[in-house]
Amino acid sequence: MLQYDIVVVGAGGAGMSAALAASRDRHLRVAMLSKVYPTRSHTGAAQGGINAAMGFRDPTDSVEKHFRDTVKGSDFLADQDAVEFFTAGMPDIIRELDYYGVPFSRDEHGRVAQRPFGGASSPRTCYSADKTGHVILHTLFEQCLKNGVEFFEDWMLLSVVVSDGKLDGIVALDIRTGEIHPILARAVVIATGGFGRIYWTRTTNAFNMTGDGTAVCFEAGIPLKDPEFVQFHPTGLARTGILVSEACRGEGGYLLNKHGERFMARYAPEKMELGPRDLVSRAIETEIREGRGFGEGLQAHVLLDLRHLGREKILERLPQVRDLALTFEGVDVIEKPVGIRPSAHYTMGGIHVQDYRTCATPVEGVHAAGECSCISVHGANRLGGNSLAEVVFFGKYAGLGAQETARHRDFGNEKRVVAEAQRWARVFETMRKKTTGHNLFQIRDRMAETMWYNVGIFRTEKDMVKALHTLDELWEMYQDAYIGDSSVRYNQAFVHYVEVGNLLKLAKAVTLGAIARKESRGSHAREDYPHRNDGEFLKHTLVYKEGDRYRLDYLPVRITKYPPEERKY
Description:
CATH superfamily of the largest domain: FAD/NAD(P)-binding domain
Low-confidence stretches: none
Shape: globular
Oligomer: single chain
CATH architecture of the largest domain: 3-Layer(bba) Sandwich
Radius of gyration: 22 Å
CATH class of the largest domain: Alpha Beta
Distance between the termini: 56 Å
Number of strands: 23
CATH topology of the largest domain: FAD/NAD(P)-binding domain
Strand content: 15-25%
Largest sheet: 7 strands, mixed
Helix content: 25-40%
Mean pLDDT: 96
Number of domains: 3
């Protein structure tokens, strides 16, 4: 049986940062599990940059301004003590990444370059052209290799085994061999990313972003916090939803409707295209709904115009954006505007973290960081550039927290972990032998369509209740799903079967949280409750899964310096 002091699940920015921090204690054995090769993790798709109040581009910028912008951007749902801890620590993180060798773009003085991003009062987003996440991920991977972290790629998390509120271990599938392994651990860090694939094709997320760690912790009794808050990025490519970086607007790009108007003047006259993501996404959808967009149905869109930036600036600062537009839309942004429409991008909610300094969850031995977790520093809406910042910052503190946990915890109940592995082996065998049943892909696609049209950018109780009934029906169909692949090795159909089950659980949690929150706040826009209601809903949603039953509870928002006020841009 495999046995490690610390197991990190997920090899993106949060997982790499956690493994790197934990492995600084050479007396501890640290392993990392990943469904994909580590440098193919989704952090590599983060384009625009990472926020820190360095004050290089604007000497008046400060940690306090970053703190204030983040709280305001969150629509005052963020826990302010956690935000202050986060923003105060970010300049040191940038210096650390620079020391490790991250090839940041540089200003004329040779300092780390910074650019403006939405919702920020100063240009504080540090960047490396438009490949910032990619270069950070590769640099952290090198450091983890240097520190002797043991990597298990093509492994998938199936269960977190818990007894009496304490971690016993985890169960994982080796996709290459088809073997299901019980793994004992003193501490685990879950860092498996978001679950934008509940919207399947209308998302910027990679195909493997199916919320595995979030769903597994949910099943193990850890509540999900604020799952109803799903961020839609304003600029997904019109046909595919693939991300076009906020750096496009940060560098001065325009959003145009079919009349050639810069329509953001109607919605955020001061910030224009640099309004926060929730506001810009709703503005684009409003333009489309009111007939000022191009095309129809899911292909309807507005235009992102970069031509005025000039060839040299686009090639220097936005080379990947140009490549994506050429590859997936057949448009050269140097010569023509490209069609864009909002796309599900980021989940503000996730695994409930109760201690932001250690990223500990309510289960002893389980820590969580990155998009799979909710700490909560993003509240109801995340600012661009705060995601890469969050994954590296809280990934580090999750690793340090797991390190401390591993030093004083013994291994858990081996028999329970083995029994759970045997249960999964039976599930795998059953699904491989099954020759009839409901089509898994039809279940998945109907889930995505239901979520986009009923629990999307604009929401009403009637639509969401309809979605809830459909999700319950799909869950019943899933119990008799058929994968059509009898192979043991590299059975990607079984992997996808597990992923769809995870997505269905999370989609229901999102929908339940959204129905119960009878207000509009940040990314959660209720047409039947168009105003924010601090009297009743200045609180975090907690969704528990107890067997097949879902239960809602609430937790107060921690407010330290900034009382809620109307959010204007």
